[in-house]
Amino acid sequence: MHMLVTGGTGYIGSHCVLELLQSNHTVTVISNLVNSATDYKGQPLSLKRIESFTNKKVNFKKVDLLDLQELEKTFKSENFDAVLHFASLKSVGESCREPLKYYYSNIVGSLNLISVCKKYNVKNLIFSSSVTVYGTSTHCLLKEDDAIGEKITNPYGQTKYMLEKMFKDVAKSDKDWNIICLRYSILVGAHPSGIIGEDQKCVPNNLVPNIIHVIKGKIPYLTIFGNDFNTFDGTCVRDYIHVTDVARANLCALNRIIEEKNIGFEIYNIGMGKGYSVLEVVKAMENASGKKIPLKIMPHRVGDVEYLCCDPTLAAKNLKWSTQFNLEEMCRDVINWQQKNPHGYVNEDHENLKTG
Amino acid sequence: MHMLVTGGTGYIGSHCVLELLQSNHTVTVISNLVNSATDYKGQPLSLKRIESFTNKKVNFKKVDLLDLQELEKTFKSENFDAVLHFASLKSVGESCREPLKYYYSNIVGSLNLISVCKKYNVKNLIFSSSVTVYGTSTHCLLKEDDAIGEKITNPYGQTKYMLEKMFKDVAKSDKDWNIICLRYSILVGAHPSGIIGEDQKCVPNNLVPNIIHVIKGKIPYLTIFGNDFNTFDGTCVRDYIHVTDVARANLCALNRIIEEKNIGFEIYNIGMGKGYSVLEVVKAMENASGKKIPLKIMPHRVGDVEYLCCDPTLAAKNLKWSTQFNLEEMCRDVINWQQKNPHGYVNEDHENLKTG
């Protein structure tokens, strides 16, 4: 089957493209490339690596979702069976400084996508959402029907929440739609081969990318905000998941849409269903890297909650999906990616240019 | 001062334009005219009436908020001090059937507006929101800091909710913004002169427009959904407000922005703060029209709550605003408008054409 993958050059998208190719799907990727490294011909490096790893071709088009005309051309020239929608701006901090940029790019871009899907009758869509839609809820294990929206602290999270609502309304208005929203917990890891991973360009705001920064010597120590939470070691507990497990969840969702049909609108948590404390993650990263990570404890921040984990039971039941990687493997693979690609994708290109 | 009024040809917008002119503001109106009657030259009939009533000019431009280029031209050619943003699709039923149309028109249109405001440094905005953002909350009296978003039952309501969130994030990102969201309760009435009012084109889904339909003989009876609610007469209680009071609230909000400065982002309920039951409204409309309104009681609908009223205390305090019209006057004025304009604005135009 022929899948359109938006944002298929990015961190999660590229891992999903790899899995799709290995499952013998035809894949077209669109991206505006704003956060993706390319070679001198403008070809995304992540896809080049995937092609040589799988020995299969990816059809790539540089298309910005805000450019409705270009988007339409893509749909006119190909017959897609389903769309996997990863394209999104994703920096929490930037979204607070430039909310309009995020609302345009994520909301208007996605409205354009779904409008064109409707026009060309491609009514199977998988959307990358996030557990951030639960806001600062502190249930033991967040479930899909828990309240969302309230207390979301940034425009990035708002765009995920709003898009879920919009997609739900669209599916409700027309029974032909099949839309699955996957709410990911915190992504860690890289493909075990080390050929693709997260090519972080900006200052990281998640735990593991920050630890990587310390390991690389870019910052002298890891700042931990609060060791006085009501958890077993005093640091916050969060739900982490391997990026390949997330990619596999997308394929499972795709299979459900293809096999079941008429599912309307569904939402699934994609997480481990158990949490790890900040100190546990630090320890696992120390083990994986063989390096000691200096720490600095600061007072805990307003709004941070001690425990945020999501329950993946529904995904296990309906999508026949479960995680295959544990925390050690997440850390192993992210370290492997970093060691093989200390400067992300771009470095390889420089070397290619030098030797080519 | 020079005010830009989006949707200034419509029901609420036109009443606000009238008040602005009477307060000696210069007014530019933009509208895509999709729901507004015009003369053979394409001039909106509501504004023509306002001009002859006030003996003042309104600067009108046909601009769709989705047309960014035209919108920019408007800002380039004029220096606005503030924007009053009424333009919105508003049919609850249609929004459920065509959610994408509503998300485009209301969300993308408003994002375009605020982007252009930012570009041309017009950072004073008053936004027409609705008590619908409270969803089906059943507090005694809804207050501005009560939970919103949860249980909104239709895309129309979602667009109001989402825009409030977006505007809040925009104001938070840049201290120069002054944005006031006014959450209106259910609008009734028309200007006491009878020159402007609601020119309803589609099937009404509110109580008073439905009663008007019965009075006009377009439907044989008024359907009441449920007389077994836990209220004094068994029918639902809602908060109603005269459209001129809403227009005045906009002027009060404008004064606050002009006088206070640096208010950031504020929200105010604009309602009576007390409710009337369906049967009380029917009785008031019977008194105003002198006609008996036949009723048919049906089982109550899923999701309807017995009591929805909002507390306008904060608006009274900060905006120095309070209602001037009671239910009897709302009914008197809507009947007056209907009697003088049985076919809305269009009829007058037909007559003009005939006699002109």
Describe this protein's structure.
Two copies of one chain form a homodimer. By secondary structure, chain A is an alpha/beta fold. Chain A has one domain: NAD(P)-binding Rossmann-like Domain (Rossmann fold). In chain A, 42% of the residues lie in helices and 17% in strands. In chain A, the strands form four sheets. Chain A has a seven-stranded parallel beta sheet with strand order 3-2-1-4-5-6-11, with helices on both faces. Chain A has a three-stranded mixed beta sheet with strand order 12-9-14. Chain A is globular. The model of chain A is unreliable at 348-356 (pLDDT under 50). Chains A and B meet through helix 5 and helix 6 of A and helix 5 and helix 6 of B. Chains A, B: One of its GO terms (molecular function) is UDP-glucose 4-epimerase activity. Chains A, B: This is UDP-glucose 4-epimerase. Chains A, B: Residues 3-271 form the NAD-dependent epimerase/dehydratase domain.
